[in-house]
Design a protein that fits this description.
single chain, mainly alpha, 36 helices, 74% helix
Length: 635
């Protein structure tokens, strides 16, 4: 889409719409081509040689040099044209086009604005001004520029198309569809507008209507590949796997699959749990195109679904090095960082995702879930109401609403809502959310009724194993809990939480020294892991190993950047270190840490923050909890 927009912008830049000055009359609307441009340049040079102040000739030279991408020469002659004829809007529009291509967007805004001030009815300048505002992520001014163009010419198709596209990107579905309706009355066969209408219905969740429109388009335009690919995405969203497979076969029979088709096929293989084949597809694409971010994302998603978070994070980082504006990569990266307890970096990552795509409900909901962890209940409630008004059937929003109920102590409401959501969308992630709510109500038998079938549905999923084993320990089945937990001590997808869990279970049995061995091994494998540090320091307090408590907590408080994003953990460590200094009779350091503790401890705020127990119940779900791929992850 970006390439198409750039080409439209470039072509518009080559056309001249006459301005209002006297010299404008001398400018010929000469269509430049590869064959005639150099001859045309020679002719214009002769005119300039005969009359240095011939603004029209300088302008034509600027247009010609722009065409052959000699931007310095183009800008030089365009500046001379404005010097000799300062009231010609076409000259400033060309300067704006040059600045745009050279990514000097501030200069481009200045030049286009000058053009429309001189000629307020110059619609082409408004269109280019809107494109520039889009490039600097100022959608508000881009919309305003397009609306001004439409006030001058309400049948301006390019302005209608771009306005509908911006609305769609902002998830303003009504505005987008209304604009497209106007456009399609003017051009009923406009394939781009018809496709965008399909995308609008698909993005707002009206998959049946989107699919109907897509199939109608295929009847009218059987060779139009973009609509076939959009239909593939719709089939993914509706979990119509056989239909998606059949459509891919059709595409292969029509012609060789494009790389985009191959990517979607690889994602389909992921769903079918053909991990090896999917990985081979992604890697084959990367061999041909090492910087194909969609293939990189595919490998990242595959590793993420298997629970290999560090490996997935590496691929996501690689993708972002190639394309820093890949919003879904920032989103997935923030999910992983939150899961690993790196809340500070996770906050930065989800903030970046929202900067790029502020209207994406999944990004908004992850951000709000993090705000809920920080205890900002009023903020979450206010923004969640807006999201649910726009997306009433969004299951992520319903899950967050349930957690909001829970944070306010309304556990019964949370449980009731989640059970209702299951009737609408019976997915593993919702069952897991229900199990968390039941656990926090101490309904341990009910938790096991939920997690037992989940363990069968999601074989080897660590989050489910963790919650199931933790629940078994609450009902006294320590041996069974240890039996299913111990194998994960050697599996990296547990990310150190297996060591925490096994340490917990051993401590419940009174085996502190054995628990400490497990926890120390965990810290060797996962240095700086805060939840392991918490459990080990707690165990050392129980065995009164105060010198080791002091060394462990001093090192963590001095070196761990993760603590800045986790105030409850920081306060706990400070409090525990105060006790250690007291037992070691180090009064000076005890008072120093005690002052620091009181500076950071706000009882009102602390009461609303997620406790460590809540953090350990994985409040931020990963794609590994669902078998079906979210359409959000597709290229």
């Amino acid at each position: 889409m970006k390439l198409i927009n750039y080409l439209i912008f470039f072509l518009l830049s080559l056309l001249f719409i006459p301005g209002c000055s006297e010299n404008t009359k001398n400018i010929q609307e000469y269509l430049l081509t590869e064959e005639n441009v150099h001859v045309y340049i020679d002719k214009q040079k002769i005119l300039v040689k005969n009359d240095e102040e011939n603004a029209a000739a300088h302008f034509n030279l600027a247009r010609s040099f722009f065409f052959i991408k000699k931007y310095d020469s183009a800008e030089n002659h365009a500046r001379r044209a404005t010097r000799y004829d300062p009231l010609n809007p076409a000259y400033y529009e060309l300067l704006g086009s040059l600045a745009f291509v050279l990514e000097r967007y501030g200069d481009a805004v200045t030049e286009f604005t000058t053009a429309v001030r001189i000629s307020p009815e110059r619609v082409s300048s408004y269109l280019k001004l809107a494109s520039t505002y889009e490039r600097i992520n100022d959608d508000g001014r881009a919309i305003s520029s397009l609306e001004q163009a439409l006030q001058i010419d309400r049948y301006y198709v390019e302005a209608l198309y771009n306005l509908a596209r911006i609305y769609l990107r902002q998830r303003e579905f009504e505005g987008s569809l209304r604009t497209l309706e106007t456009l399609l009355k003017l051009e009923p066969q406009n394939k781009g507008a018809l496709l965008m209408r399909v995308q609008a219905y698909s993005l707002q969740g009206s998959y049946y209507y989107a699919q109907t429109l897509a199939e109608e388009m295929l009847v009218r335009f059987p060779d139009y590949l973009p609509v076939r690919r959009e239909l593939l995405r719709i089939q993914f969203a509706q979990k119509q796997w056989p239909e998606a497979q059949a459509l891919l076969v059709q595409l292969r029979n029509k012609n060789s699959l494009s790389q985009e088709d191959q990517l979607i096929e690889a994602y389909l293989l992921l769903h079918q749990e053909q991990e090896k084949e999917a990985s081979e597809r992604f890697k084959a694409i990367l061999e041909k195109q090492p910087k194909n971010v969609d293939a990189i994302m595919g490998l990242a998603v595959q590793l993420l679904r298997k629970g290999f978070l560090d490996d997935s994070l590496s691929w996501l980082t690689r993708g972002l090095e190639i394309n820093p504006s890949l919003a879904r990569a920032h989103y997935l990266r923030s999910s992983i960082l939150f899961r690993q307890g790196d809340y500070l970096q996770g906050d930065l990552a989800i903030g970046r995702a929202l900067e790029i795509d502020s209207a994406n409900p999944s990004y908004q909901l992850l951000f709000l879930r993090r705000q809920l962890m920080k205890g900002k209940l009023a903020v979450v409630e206010k923004q969640l109401i807006r999201i649910m008004e726009k997306h009433p059937l969004n299951t992520e929003a319903m899950q967050l609403q349930a957690d909001l109920y829970k944070s306010r102590g309304n556990f019964n409401q949370a449980e009731e809502l989640l059970r209702q959501v299951i009737l609408v969308n019976d997915s593993p992630s919702i069952h897991f959310s229900l199990a968390r709510v039941l656990f926090q109500q101490s309904k341990y038998r009910s938790v096991l009724e939920v997690t037992t079938p989940l363990m069968e549905a999601l074989v080897g999923n660590w989050e489910v194993i963790y919650l199931h084993a933790l629940t078994l320990s609450r009902v006294g089945n320590f041996e069974e809990a240890l039996l299913i937990s111990r194998p994960y001590l050697k599996r990296r997808e547990s990310q150190g939480y297996a060591h925490r869990l096994v340490g917990d279970l051993l401590r419940y049995k009174g085996e502190e020294r054995e628990a400490q061995k497990i926890l120390r091994n965990g810290l060797v494998q996962f240095p700086g892991h805060l939840y392991l540090t918490d459990e080990l320091s707690s165990s050392l307090v129980m065995t009164e190993d105060w010198a080791e408590v002091q060394e462990l907590l001093e090192t963590t408080l001095e070196q761990s950047l993760l603590l800045e994003g986790n105030p409850p953990m920081q306060l706990l460590f400070l409090d525990r270190l105060v006790v250690a200094y007291d037992r070691l009779k180090n009064t000076e350091k005890k008072l120093q840490i005690l002052r620091k503790f009181h500076q950071k401890n706000d009882p009102l705020t602390a009461a609303q923050l997620y406790s460590l127990e809540e953090q350990l119940l994985f409040p931020i779900a990963l794609p590994s909890l669902d078998k079906a791929l979210s359409p959000l992850l597709l290229p």
